[in-house]
């Protein structure tokens, strides 16, 4: 178990005992990853913020059911995935968007902004050629830097299936 995972396990154990600082530390450590995952799926910042808040409320409510030796981020992604699915069931599906950190940095430079938008459009077009599961594997593995085990837990697949999905996704992107 790596250092971050060991620290997460300790935070979960403390949170299960009611330690508010541990809840805050889990939130601080994983908020951005959960938000990015949700934003990628819903394409709307305020909605992604609301759903991310729901994920962490659910975590607080159900932390006693979580096994501390498992990756907390995988559990948070699972909660996030369920929240997004519930949202899409109630409100219909929206277009997925590509994440691009360059867009924020390019706001003051029109040439950089145009370049960032072109790259984002090319990435979105390439990702649109993938299946939903392939897109999620690419997001989890390359945007959120998840391990195969974490991605497998989020998607309810085996690590071998994740490797296969990743391989097929990269092959498909190579053909685009």
How would you explain this protein's 3D organization?
There is one protein chain. Mean pLDDT is 83; it is low at 95-103. The protein has nine helices and no strands. The chain has a domain at 1-97: RNA polymerase sigma factor, region 2, helix turn helix motif (Rna Polymerase Sigma Factor, Chain: A). Helix 3 (45-62) packs across helix 4. It is mainly α. The longest helix is centred in the first third of the chain and has 23 residues, at 20-42.
What's the helix and strand layout?
Layout: H1 3-16, H2 20-42, H3 45-62, H4 72-91, H5 102-105, H6 110-127, H7 132-143, H8 148-155, H9 159-175
Short synopsis of the structure:
The protein is mainly alpha-helical and 176 residues long.
* Mean pLDDT across every amino acid position: 83
Q: What coarse outline follows from CA principal-axis ratios?
A: globular
**CATH class (first level) name of the domain at 1-97:** Mainly Alpha
Q: What is the chain-wise order of helices and strands?
A: HHHHHHHHH
Which stretches of 5+ consecutive residues score pLDDT under 50? 95-103
Strand element count = 0
What are the defining features of this structure?
single chain; 176 residues; mainly alpha; Rna Polymerase Sigma Factor, Chain: A; globular
